[in-house]
Amino acid sequence: MTPLVLTSSVLVDAPIETVWSVLVDVERWTRWCPPVRRVTHFEGIAEGRRLAYVLGMGPGVPVSFDVTIETCARPHVLQWWSTKWWGVTGTRAFLLSEVDGGTNVEDRKTFQSRIWPVARLYPRSVVGGMSNKWLDGLAAEVLRRSDAF
Q1: Rounded to the nearest 5°, which phi and psi values hold at 141?
Q2: Contact indicator for 124, 6 with CB cutoff of 8 Å
Q3: How far apart are CA 129 and CA 56, in angstroms?
Q4: What is the C-alpha R_g of the chain?
Q5: What pLDDT is recorded for position 38?
Q6: What are the chain's domains?
Q7: Average pLDDT by consecutive 10-residue portion of the chain (149 residues)?
């Protein structure tokens, strides 16, 4: 079946290493990323390591994710995957690139299933809105930390 690919991006006025350091500071996600309710397990940022967290998918709707880091290429790519909800596999990649003295951060999510037509059924507006909140929070936290120095 056809996978569903959703992308969002933000341009952050900071060096790529600074953006990367905030992105991989998993223990502080709840401070700057509104959708993240809590991090419940963290083995570190490295390929093959696991991470579990809870997102607020809407008012009163917490959803747990247990993901495995697939690619960690500092400071350009952080990608993980998980299988959830009746065999739907989701892959999330944060892709960082240097642009005009700043950093472009793309959040690319891919959902696929051998059983379900995810391209037709997945809640695009909810997932897209959460991606935008995540990226906006990341950009604000990078700027906040930069101003602290």
Answers
A1: -70, -40
A2: yes
A3: 12
A4: 15
A5: 95
A6: 4-37+70-148 (3.30.530.20)
A7: 88 97 97 94 96 84 91 98 82 96 96 80 76 95 85
Residue partners of 25: CB distance under 8 A and separation at least 6: none
Whose tokens are 């996600």? That residue is: 29
Q: What pLDDT score was predicted for residue 1?
A: 67
Separation CA 46–CA 48 (nearest Å): 6
What is the pLDDT, as a whole number, of residue 10? 97
Q: Which of 106, 79, 90 is nearest to 19 (CA)?
A: 106
Helix (H/G/I), strand (E/B), else coil: 132: helix
Of 77, 142, 105, the closest CA to residue 11 belongs to: 105
CB 124 within 8 A of CB 130: no
Give the pTM. Answer: 0.91
What is the torsional sign of CA 12, 16, 19, 20?
positive
State how far the Cα of 110 lies from the Cα of 149, in Å rounded to an integer.
37
Instruction: Provide CB contacts within 8 A for 90, sequence distance 6+.
Output: 81, 82, 83, 84, 109, 110, 111
The label of the residue with tokens 């960690």 reads 72
